Amino acid sequence: MKKICKRAWDQVLYSPFNVFLILAAWGLELKFWPTLASILLVNFAICYYLEAKKRAPRISRKNYQHYKDHGLSDQDIHYFRQEMAACLDQIERILPLMVTRDSRRYRAQDQVNSKQIKAYFHAIQQQPHLLADSADFRYQLLPHLEKELRHYQALDSAGEDADERAASRDRLDQVNQEIKASYQDFLKLSI
């Protein structure tokens, strides 16, 4: 909502049409504040519409047919796309955090884990009717992984003792193993 309000205000300030409307209202001796409020309201509505349209991009015929082949209704398709967009946002926040870990062994391990997370996401996209079966990945494992990565990064940047960082690394490894097991279970369901 804050983003939409900022865009509406920017549109009011920088749009020549809006400046023209304000000057015309001033020239016609209309009251300034009600006119400005009306212009802001219209701009807010336009920005809200554009933001909502941006969030739900059009579905290609190929993807629409793919979803229909898997038995999804139009409402299910909309829900699936919202869930996958939220999941993708979370994955995009996680992946940069994975490359900040220290040793070579962990960097190589993180590359494998990031590929596995991407593969899991792709597998869910290929089997949209199994979205509910990936709930533990989307609602528990990814948020937990992000939390642990941020915690490890905070410990690493603060220069905390090695024991605490090792414990955090162990928790990260455990979450990655849980993701791997969840992915294997999901693949068994999709066969």
Describe the structure.
- By secondary structure, the protein is mostly helical.
- It has two domains: 54 residues; 122 residues, no CATH class.
- 83% of the residues lie in helices and 0% in strands.
- The longest helix is centred in the C-terminal third of the chain and has 29 residues.
- The radius of gyration is 24 Å and the shape is flat.
- The mean pLDDT is 82.
User: Spans of 5+ residues with little confidence (pLDDT < 50)?
Assistant: none
The gyration radius over C-alpha positions equals: 24 Å
Shape: flat
Beginning-to-end CA distance, first to last residue:
42 Å
Strand content: under 5%
Helices, by number, come to: 8
Mind summarizing the main beta sheet?
A: none
- Summing up helix and strand content along with how strands pair, one would put the structural category as mainly alpha
Protein name: 5-bromo-4-chloroindolyl phosphate hydrolase
Transmembrane segments: 12-28, 34-52
Keywords: Membrane, Transmembrane, Transmembrane helix
Pfam families: Halogen_Hydrol
Topology readout:
Blueprint: H1 2-14, H2 16-27, H3 32-55, H4 61-69, H5 74-98, H6 104-126, H7 135-158, H8 162-190
Helix pairs in contact: 1-3, 2-3, 5-6, 5-7, 6-8, 7-8
Which key phrases capture this entry?
2 domains, transmembrane, 191 residues, mainly alpha, single chain, 0% strand
